[in-house]
Amino acid sequence: TRLANTAIDRVRGQESAVAGEIAAFAASDLICYRAEGPGGLVEAQSRHWDPVLDWLKNELDAPFTLTAGIVHQAQREASLKAVRAEFDRFDAFALSALHTITTLAGSGLLALALAKGKLSPDEAWRAAHVDENWQISQWGEDTEAGARREQRRTEMDAAANFLKYIKAD
Questions:
Q1: Which partner from 62, 95, 96, 151 sits 20 to 30 angstroms from 87, CA to CA?
Q2: Alpha-carbon span 162 to 142, nearest angstrom
Q3: What are phi and psi of 73, to 5 degrees?
Q4: For residue 26, what is the DSSP state?
């Protein structure tokens, strides 16, 4: 209900602006910034993120440049335009869900892959939390952080279900 109300009250009539806001994440998307180590984290990032980047490159002709660390890496303008064009195809209802997913995932590219059926909700969630999952596997999970994470997961699942039921693709 919240997503539908958001679509009606805040997104309808503002579709282009919302699509642009979501697409803007691609300019510094989570999945383009890689760890240099340790090896287990590097492997996990590649396993979860490379298939999305391969899909973007092969199906949308939108290759993205990877970088190590957190220093900004400019992306090809043509790739950013291709991603933006995909988001521009969604209606207000889909955009309200995609905005939620993008915010929770920290990645417009993962949100797009989910909306296009290239990732399941579980795959998108795991991909969005590769770094956090790796840290948990090394050090354990903080109880309060785990509770916040569970709430974010519930929100992401609701948005993914909303997309599925409105047939956003």
A1: 151
A2: 30
A3: -120, 115
A4: G
Q: Other C-beta atoms within 10 Å of 88: how many?
A: 13
For the record, the structure tokens of 78 come out as 């043509």
**Cβ-proximal residues to 53 (8 Å cutoff; 6+ apart), any chain:** 31, 32, 63, 64, 66, 109
Residue among 87, 124, 85 at smallest CA distance from 107: 124
Cβ-based neighbours of 158, under 8 Å, separated by 6 or more? 3, 100
18-32, 103-117, 133-147: least confident range: 133-147
pTM of the model: 0.95
Neighbouring residues of 87: CB distance < 8 A, sequence distance ≥ 6: 19, 20, 22, 23, 95, 98, 108, 112
Q: In this predicted model, what pLDDT tens digit does every residue of 23-46 receive, in sequence order?
A: 999 999 999 999 999 999 999 999
Is the backbone peptide bond immediately before 38 cis, with ω within 30 degrees of 0? yes
CA-based nearest residue to 30, from 123, 131, 100: 131
For residue 163, which of 49, 20, 22 has the smallest C-alpha distance? 22
